[in-house]
## 1
Amino acid sequence: MPHPFPDQPINWRRQVLGHLDSLSAAGVTWLPNAPPLSLPPTLTEAPAAAAPPPPVTPAAAAGAEPAPASPLEQRRQALQMLAAEVKGCMKCPELASTRTQTVFADGPPGVELCFIGEAPGADEDAQGLPFVGAAGQLLNKIIAACGMKREEVYICNILKCRPPGNRTPLPIEASNCRGFLERQLELVQPKFICALGGSAAANLLQTTTPIGKLRGRFHDWRGIPVMVTYHPAYLLPHRSPEKKKDVWEDMKILLARMGRPVPART
Ligand code: SF4
């Protein structure tokens, strides 16, 4: 018999009991052994427990998915993690045991120009930032003369630890630290690099050519143009201040390649 109300659930138990009552009233005292009934799952199985609703975050409540970090922000965070890794580095036993702290870099990723020096000096070792001593003050003036601000460039060194007495980095030390520098540059992705001094140029470009023959023209590091010039420390009054004009010539070539105006020198 068709269900009289097809859009409502069937009460199978009540129907069976009602049928047995009517049979009993009619004098039926037994029934044949029938094959097992195939009942709807709703009568044989407990309903599955409903999954708990997901927690409601403020962003979800506002109807918005949390925004993923931008590629630049991801690179900034990766640089922070790399700096933390450098902080615990003990690859160069002498440097690791004599440093006050590691000196990773100054500046944000994604800038146009990256300056690379040799290694931290006493002031840098004390402050944890590159180029903050007398040579750093001169570098600041060079950057300003180029029409830029220090915050607009990235500054780092070949070595992240100060060699005792400011001695030249040993080849093994430069080799130990090279992986950090390469990862750093891959994350910063500067469009131009300026290597400051013969040691920085030799280590970055893996060359033994003296700086006098490297400076004033472009080299290449993984597709990035590299200008080589003298280290600011070399330009200090007690060393070779007359070389400042050579540095300015190198900077003018760099600025022209960057498509920037060359400010008149005061
Ligand atoms: S100079 Fe570089 S490789 Fe050597 S101990 Fe310092 S961070 Fe490590």
## 2
Amino acid sequence: MTSRTNFEITFWGVRGSVPTPAQHTRKYGGNTPCLEVRAGNNLLLIDAGTGICRFTERLTQAQNQGLSISILLSHTHWDHIQGLPFFKLAFNPANNIKIYGPKRPGFTLRSCLEAAMTPPNFPIPFDLLAGIKEVIEIAPGEGIELDGVKISTAELNHPDGSIGFRIEHNGKSLAYCLDHEHEEPDQVHPGLRELAENSDVLIFDAAYSDEDYAKFKGWGHSTWQVGHKTAQQLGVKTLVLSGFNPDLTDDELDAIAEQTKDMTGNTIVAKEGETLAL
Ligand SMILES: [Zn+2]
């Protein structure tokens, strides 16, 4: 269903670190991050974890060629690019795919993607992805303008770096801030504030819960409670929790969904295959 603003998102991967097809992930899903964004005439995919393969499955034969797609990569950790070598649309020269990702000192974005697809680690080199027409580096803070869509970026806090995105279309805004940890849990990180303040939807890193956080402090991920506090502080309309640690079970995610119902603000636990209209 398309909203009046013609701006909607679909979750194809909500799991961090490693794909987790397991009994305990059947309900919310086990694929690594990929978000489909439809904004006006634009088709964007944010991150290319294994969820990107599920996005492809949904397209019919007629829909899977002649496509223009912008892929935004938050960073090149495995779980955010591991779907790319299996992304069928990228092998079709009839598609026009542009990949945007962060500029990092000492590495080009293309070299990071090539390294993940170099024989003998993977039989098909990146250059054979004939549907990928451009790989564009963006410095954190640099913007991207697409047809009727404004995208802002900012550096977040994560080992090796990660950038977040704010996507604006038709007066609505989406902030995507996965793989992020505030330096101090009680203080909103300036990059995240810039992207998420007064946004309609904030997608936030909810890898852990506060109860487990001490074990993972400094790993570059956050908790659902910090996400809730942050959303309240920044005047976010809808908070979406995503990027779950592979050990988080469906029952535990159900319990988080229950708890947030009694809290202020609107909170959603991201589920693979679900669509949200802005
Ligand atoms: Zn990461």
## 3
Amino acid sequence: MDKLIDIAKEAIEAIDKRIKKEDKNKFGIEIEIGADGTPTLYIDKVAEEIALDIIGKEANILSEEIGYIDNGKEYIIVLDPIDGTRNAFHGIPFYGISIAIGRKNIEDIEYGIVKNIPTGDVYEAFKDDGAFLNGKRIEVSKDYSDIIYCLTLGESGNEKTWKLVELHTIRAMGAAALEMCLVASGAIHAYFMPKESLRVTDFAAGCLIVREAGGEVYNANGEILNVPLNLNIRSSVLAVASNEILKKLIGGVK
Ligand SMILES: [Mg+2]
């Protein structure tokens, strides 16, 4: 496991370095159709290729563009080479890289790491051993004096998030893994994607980071989020700092 964690960190740093060097005007060029049936953009492809080179055959790989690579290993490295691709190619400085290491399901993820490329912040979690931001332990917010929710709105949202916009303070940031990390670090109190549109590559690392920081992650039906590590599955995601926040959100939706 330690070796795989080192590989994940090495991949993150290599992608980060390369993306910073790249011509940002090329980020949005469509290269091909990915395993998920959506166009693969230049930035996603470059980032994925770097990670695949570094991971090699040390683990099985589940990645956003290439799909599943079975190397006959015990562990799967779940990779979102760029979280928040649209932000990256429009020059909105909120995008990152997300890597998780597990076996079969979201619940058996043992390690997760998410790096915010523009700020350099690194969020990490080790199963049963806590969540960290730049090496310092983090916990979800228990201070409800200024509640902030990150909601998915516009065409990516639906009536469940639209109904919440008048409650508390709202942000919509466009990078699921990083938004989940903001719940974990106590910056915000919830992240909600109401549609079944996110894949395990988007939320595998974020789920562990939120849970290890003392929060919980549900789907839009209020069920604890746990799905197999399979790219064909799409899910809604509701990451919350506490049960109290979950109740406020569900009360606001009804
Ligand atoms: Mg992505």
## 4
Amino acid sequence: MLREFKILRRHGIQYIPDLRNAKVSDNLTGRPVIDKAITAEEADMVKKVCPAGAINASPFSIDMGKCLFCKECSFMLPNRIRFTNDYKLASNRRENLIIRAGEDKPVQFSHHSVRPEIRRLFRHALKLRQVSAGGDNSCEMELNAAGNVNFDMGRYGIEFVASPRHADGIVITGPVSENMAKALKMTYDAIPEPKIIILAGVDAIRGGMFKNSKAINREFLALHRADLYVPGNPVHPLTFINGVLDLIGVK
Ligand code: SF4
């Protein structure tokens, strides 16, 4: 018994007590901040190094729905572009993922545009089916971590389930490959109303590096509006959990 106590003491606290205000390392690559004094020449130069087409030069902005968080832009212009460790990046409006020069404020979440039935039905329990639609297993591993002993999103009743019949919504990762397009639709069809759609990671939001590939088929996403966009490459568990809590209306 004494031995077990010693082990527990050595391990310390295994979970994050407050997921809404968790302290994270300064090294976490989160929301970018752009100096409003960035010049047109600098903007053109840095736009060329962005591998994802996430930078708009005029007016200067970074689209987190496309950004790979590779930090190449920041390495090139460290005095103009920096990445904070703000992990609350998710929003229910696609346009809120665009960070403009001179802005340094949290990503906005449009609470009034959440479908009322989502908050009425799922505030205390939300079951999700995850579909990796051509994903590379990075976002999938982070989503898995969201349920582990550290992050423990299950404390809010949020869980992944093994069947779409038991799910309230779908979490899509990956750019949606042609091979997964039918399976994605079948999974979505099997979920009862009101079906939530969450796009996790830059590949799901915009296709990522694969957006021009002939091997992807994003017809499903053209037909259905997402309820939540979670940027990241991959998505951080805290980004995902905080986004879902905003969606279901948990303070
Ligand atoms: S961090 Fe984002 S915006 Fe900057 S170069 Fe990489 S993909 Fe482009």
